[in-house]
């Protein structure tokens, strides 16, 4: 199956996951910017297309381009994978996965999540500021839950919880024929 991985990444985690998936499925790989320059016929060759974007306030960054295209790619195997700072087992992940796609899109696209991390060294100014404000608002809360306390502690400095094992379900889905 000829497969294409398209991704957008600010600090490198989604790039790393995209490269892992591309290696494992022997897929071609493009950044979103590169893919946006291709004409419609370019994608005809591919039987499977996966889009990777990072989690941004419960959504997948820059997924709109792919989701628009996907409505005309229903004959292909389609996946969206989201890479975020939350661990895979966090309840937030389920909530996010459910809202990435509409009920209609869920019929022809499958959504996945891979835990990435935080890299403050590579993060741009507006992102750093947004996180700083988020952390400050959580710290200010009087009745912080245990989960919120853990989150504040975790995202106060850089960490990497990525692992190639989280690509297993994506690889399996892209390679299955049915
Ligand atoms: C403004 C902002 C909002 C974020 N929102 C979330 C979120 O809702 N859920 C989550 O798990 N991670 C969130 N993150 C963390 C990033 O998704 C995480 O660092 C990811 O690994 C970045 O991927 P990248 O290295 O490909 O850019 C957020 C990060 C920023 C900067």
Which architecture name of the largest domain does CATH use?
Answer: 3-Layer(aba) Sandwich
The tally of structural domains comes to: 2
Biggest beta sheet summary: 6 strands, mixed
Which range best describes the helical content: under 10%, 10-25%, 25-40%, 40-55%, 55-70% or over 70%?
25-40%
Report mean pLDDT, rounded to a whole number. 95
Question: What is the CA-atom radius of gyration, in angstroms?
Answer: 17 Å
- Outline the low-pLDDT stretches: none
Which key terms come to mind for this protein?
single chain; 178 residues; alpha/beta; Rossmann fold; 2 domains; 6-stranded mixed β-sheet; two-stranded antiparallel ribbon
Write a brief caption for the model:
The chain has 178 residues and is of the alpha/beta class.
Describe it for me?
The chain is elongated and about 55 Å long. The protein has helices at residues 13-25, 32-36, 64-70, 91-100, 125-140, 146-155, 168-175, and strands at 3-7, 28-31, 48-56, 59-60, 77-84, 109-115, 117-118, 159-160. The protein has 2 domains: 3-119 and 160-175, 3-Layer(aba) Sandwich (Rossmann fold), CATH 3.40.50; 120-157. Helix 5 runs antiparallel to helix 6 (146-155). The chain has 7 helices and 8 strands; from the N terminus they run βαβαββαβαββααβα. The longest helix has 16 residues, at 125-140. The protein is of the alpha/beta class and 178 residues long. The structure holds flavin mononucleotide. Residues 9-14, 54-58, 83-86, 116-118, 123, 127, 130-131 line the site of flavin mononucleotide. Flavin mononucleotide is lined by residues 9-14, 54-58, 83-86, 116-118, 123, 127, 130-131.
């Amino acid at each position: 199956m000829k497969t294409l991985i398209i991704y957008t990444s600010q600090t490198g985690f989604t790039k790393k996951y995209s490269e892992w998936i591309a290696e494992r499925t022997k897929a071609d790989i493009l950044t979103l910017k590169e893919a946006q320059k291709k004409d419609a016929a370019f994608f005809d060759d591919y039987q499977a297309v996966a889009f990777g974007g990072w989690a941004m306030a419960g959504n997948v960054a820059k997924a709109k381009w792919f989701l628009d295209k996907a409505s005309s790619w229903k004959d292909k195997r389609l996946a969206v994978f989201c890479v975020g700072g939350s661990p895979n087992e966090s309840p937030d992940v389920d909530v996010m996965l459910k809202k990435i796609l509409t009920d209609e899109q869920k019929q022809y696209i499958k959504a996945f999540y891979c835990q990435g991390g935080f890299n403050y060294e590579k993060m741009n100014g507006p992102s750093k500021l947004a996180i700083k404000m988020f952390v400050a608002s959580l710290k200010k809360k009087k009745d912080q839950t245990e989960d919120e306390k853990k989150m504040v502690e975790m995202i106060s400095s850089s960490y990497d919880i990525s692992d190639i094992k989280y690509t297993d379900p994506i690889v399996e889905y892209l390679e299955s024929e049915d």
